[in-house]
Amino acid sequence: MKKKLLTLGLLSLVTIGLVACGSSKEGDKKADSGKKSDNKTIVVGASPTPHAEILEQAKPLLKEKGYDLDIKVFNDYILPNKALAEKELDANYFQHIPYFNQEVKEKGYDFTNAGAVHLEKMAFYSQKIKDIKELPEGATIITSNSNTDWGRIITILQDADLVKVKKGTDLTTATFDDIEENPKKLKFKHDIDPAILATAYQNKEGDMVAINANFAEGIGLNPEKDGLLVEKDNSPYANIIVVRTEDKDSAKTKALVEALHDEKIKKFVDEKWKGTIKIVD
Question: Which residues constitute the signal peptide according to the record (predicted)?
Fold first, then answer.
């Protein structure tokens, strides 16, 4: 009798084990199914302004295409590319072309520029002077520590006849060492993170601060209205959608880029930013 009971017990354990295995497989199938449903969610990393705001307007457009848009906001320029490389994002939207090119070159990211979306103007702001003609000799100019912004900053200053670079210098890659003429003996402080430049302005640091439109917007500054010097419309610093190269032709990427170039997005940007931020055709 004991042998029979033992045999029955073993059979029961085996049966339970088989059922458990079967349940595990069913659970795996459900998990896999859940992962597949995630293919209808596009996760995009973005700067708060204007990128995340523009993306918010794209949500209903993407919904019409069958996608949910999950926006992850970043307040720095390092983590969005890192998160994309680690597959925490499907795309990111925060950087201009020169910055993207440098990141790929220096860090070896296997990324692709999926298309330009908008241009946001950089401008110089001051709490100490009201007109560029008042800029004193030896003035301190505070700029970004991102060397991909330096050529942009130098171009604005050169257009205003405040500096002149060496002949043959490529302005998109120019550094402060390329400045050949500096008649006002301007001093450049370029060790501040781009996100902190607005704070430097609020703290009345330096004589002028170069701030990109997304950060200027955050403290209520408008380049055309408040800037002493403003970037020209033909700037090559368009902000782009970046994806991993393996996803450059994916349905998600195509849907995202198309939505961001919809006429409704263009109208929203034109009405909100009055031309200081423009959708690129």
Answer: 1-20
Distance CA 244, CA 42 (A): 13
Q: Are 149 and 143 in contact (CB under 8 A)?
A: yes
Instruction: For residue 35, give Cα distances in angstroms to 22, 32, 255.
Output: 20, 5, 20
Neighbours of 79 (CB within 10 A): 15
Q: From the CB of residue 94, how many other CB atoms can be counted at a distance below 10 Å?
A: 26
What is the C-alpha to C-alpha distance for residues 265 and 57, in angstroms, rounded to an integer? 7
CATH assignment of 41-121+236-279? 3.40.190.10
* pLDDT tens string 185-215: 999 999 999 989 999 999 999 999 999 988 8
Amino acid identity, position 142: I
Per residue in 220-270, pLDDT (tens digit) is 999 989 999 999 877 889 999 999 999 999 999 999 999 999 999 999 999
CATH topology (fold) of 123-230: D-Maltodextrin-Binding Protein; domain 2 (3.40.190)
